[in-house]
Amino acid sequence: MSQGLTWTMELRHLRYFVAVAEERHFGRAARRLRIAAPSLSQQIKVLERDLHVTLLERSPRRVVLTPAGEVLLEHAHVLLARADRARYEVRCADGRHRHISLRVAPGVEHILKDPLGRLSGLAAELEVTAVTATDSDAIRAVRDGHTDAAIVWVRCVQDQDLPGRLLARVPVHLALSAEHRLAAAEAVPVTDLAEETVVMIPRDQFPGICDYLLAHLLPAGPARPDQVLTPPNLINAPEALLRAVAAGHGVAPVAPAAAEHLAVPGIVVRPVAPPLLAPLELIWHDPAHPALPDVIALLTNTGGQAPASEQGDERHQTPRK
Questions:
Q1: Which residues, including other chains, have CB under 8 Å from residue 78's CB and lie 6 or more apart?
Q2: 232 near 249, Cβ under 8 Å?
Q3: Whether 276 contacts 216, CB under 8 Å
Q4: DSSP summary character for residue 13
Q5: Which helix (H) or strand (E) holds 66?
Q6: How far apart are the C-alpha atoms of 235 and 70, rounded to whole Å?
Q7: How far apart are CA 242 and CA 174, in angstroms?
Q8: How far apart, in whole angstroms, are the C-alpha atoms of residue 252 and residue 175?
Q9: Residues 112, 250: Cα–Cα separation, whole Å
Q10: Which residues, listed in sequence order, are joined to residue 232 by a DSSP beta bridge?
Q11: What pLDDT is stored for residue 55 in this prediction?
């Protein structure tokens, strides 16, 4: 009998890979994982060696996913979510431990950094696991019962049936090349954007927020078929969007907290006029997880100062136990 090629893939390697893929930077991923950057790089190389593929194209300034890396990222989210679910069910078998799982839209970890950090301070018998996911994937996971709750941007009309809580209205500014004709403006009037190319995240993954932002920035609609640009590799990489702006491909809506964290050179960030605020919501399925009220309290209790803007009570619902 011939022996086939065998390889192993550890969950910790998948978690390391996902962090690098989402951050597109080894240093930021290492800080997020709380390990040394050289060690992280070595662990990714081990994963690549085990899989016999190159997952990441490395450069001093950024990291780009290869086609193999894109495929693994999609599977890694599913595998890690299943592993977390299995861990939860095993730990809950004794009736003492509780676990709540969250899907979180990309960039939210920068906008709600302090509130999300407070979740780690919950009682020892409650564990919170957060996984990055696009709005479409997060809403689907909530509907299918694969996650307990999700933090998403603007929901489409067909998704308004899910219970939810408005966490914040997040200011959205405009990223422009430092050489752009509007770069010196204190605030950019939307009337000056009628002919501008707008760089956006993929609409199929973020339909609600894409339509919401474009309706504000281009109220008359696109003036030409190619006015809305979606470069590749943007689903989990806001940095790629900002680099497209720095390269002069257009302007892009961005939350100031995310732009500040990424610190992409060659761009400026300006408010728009009239101001643009994007709703950020926590959604869940009924019956709600018994610990969800505790999670809501920690996400909305900011000591009198909203996480990214004013907090709102409209569309507020209390989880039914």
A1: none
A2: no
A3: yes
A4: H
A5: none
A6: 10
A7: 10
A8: 5
A9: 27
A10: none
A11: 93
Residue 204 or 273, more confident: 273
| Distance in angstroms (rounded) separating the CA atoms of residues 81 and 220 | 41
Is the preceding omega at residue 274 within 30 degrees of 0, hence cis? yes
- For residue 175, which amino acid is it? A
Alpha carbons 108 and 284: distance in angstroms, whole number? 17
From CA 107, how far away is CA 126, in angstroms rounded?
25
pLDDT digits (tens, 9 = 90+) for 231-261: 765 544 677 788 889 989 999 999 998 888 7
Give residue for tokens 């403006």: 185
- Compute the distance between CA of residue 104 and CA of residue 115 in angstroms, rounded to an integer: 13
pLDDT value of residue 307? 36
Distance separating alpha carbons of residues 171 and 77, to the nearest angstrom: 29
- The span from the CA of 129 to the CA of 118, in Å, is 13
Q: Which amino acid is at 296?
A: I
Q: How far apart are CA 299 and CA 297, in angstroms?
A: 6
Q: Write the single-letter amino acid at 236.
A: N
**Residue 301, both tokens:** 């209790």
Task: Please tell me the least confidently modeled range out of 29-38, 49-58, 189-198.
Answer: 29-38
Three-state secondary structure along 220-264?
Answer: CCCCCCCCEECCCCCCCCHHHHHHHHHCCCCEEEECHHHHHHHCC
Q: Residue 70 phi/psi, 5° resolution?
A: -60, -40
Return phi, psi of residue 195, to 5°: -105, 0
C-alpha–C-alpha distance, residues 14 and 77, integer Å: 9
CB of 232 within 8 A of CB of 144?
A: no
Query: Under 8 Å CB-to-CB from 296, ≥6 apart: which residues?
Result: 165, 282, 319
Of the two residues 90 and 170, the one the predictor is more confident about is 170
